[in-house]
Amino acid sequence: MIVSRCRRCGVNRAEVYLAHSNLSLCPECFTLLTERRVRHTIESHKMISRDDRLGVAVSGGKDSSSLAYILHNLYEKLDMVLIYVDLGVPEYSSHCLKKVETLAKMLGRELVVYSLERELGFTIGDVRGTIYGKKPCSACGTIKRYLFNKIAYDLGLTKIATGHNLDDTVEALFNFYIEGNVKSLVRLRPYLPKTHPKIVPKIKPLIGLTDIECYYYAEYKGLPIRALECQFSKGSRSVRRKELLNTIVEKIPSFKHTFINSHYKRILPLLEQALKSQGQGEETEIYDCPICGMPTSLKGMPCHFCKIVNMIKGKVEVKVS
Ligand code: Q46
Ligand code: ZN
Hints:
Blueprint: E1 16-18, E2 23-25, H1 27-44, E3 53-57, H2 62-74, E4 79-86, H3 92-107, E5 110-115, H4 116-120, H5 137-155, E6 159-161, H6 166-179, H7 182-187, E7 191-192, E8 202-203, H8 211-220, H9 237-251, H10 255-277, E9 287-288, E10 295-296, H11 304-313
Parallel strand pairs: 3-4, 3-6, 4-5, 6-8
Antiparallel strand pairs: 1-2, 7-8, 9-10
The structure holds Fe4 H S5 and zinc ion.
Residues 87, 124, 136-137, 140-141, 230, 232-233 line the site of Fe4 H S5 (Q46).
């Protein structure tokens, strides 16, 4: 029997094959290299500084759990809290909560839990039946983005780290290219700096790691990760797009890496220039939401979050925070 040895240490048995770089690695070398790659992403984009107070958005999934674990190990002295938004999805949300509680204990880090039901009196399932139709996912994205920012702002945190990885980013870019959504293509970045006093900068340290790399990392480190999927994720467009992109990777292993590199190095600078020459730079006007006071691009109107809350108010009785 031929046992392939790890290409890095040459001693241990290789268990992980990274097709994009044609590397076979043992678990130890794989986890070490993964951490180095994340550190490289963080340093090359100057994502974290010593005096940061970091919020890590956790969901109980492989990506955000790996992210919290890697950040904890790389920056042990950094002030860091985990933030979990409980969406009230039956069975799933309480299952995920247990996983993030275990993770927080394992790391000895504080966990802040925000329950939609407790704080606002509704669950994500109540979004169905409004203009969002049967799938609450796009409203869910808006709600989570708003709440992570609001919670971090209220806690005085200086940055929010999310577990968006390479697969998530390529899927989103692919979608924006198809839609011709130039503004979103320009806005989707590994590091979103502060553009308003109430907007907390966002960082994506896992942007260079694939889904499968995050999965292996979490497995090898024995991290508590959820075994259930959200009931609303079935058949979602983003899942179907990811499946489609994976069929390309079967034929061209480096496809996602090449795609993201071409976008950030070659295409993005041209798109930025084009927008500027049309007088549509990245800076959009920001206004205060008349309901919650948080920043919004909508002049004289409630922000997207408050709009969703108002919509649900028509269906169920909602506590006004
Ligand atoms: S949690 Fe929310 Fe996902 Fe559930 S409702 Fe859809 S977006 S599927 S990451
Ligand atoms: Zn608002």
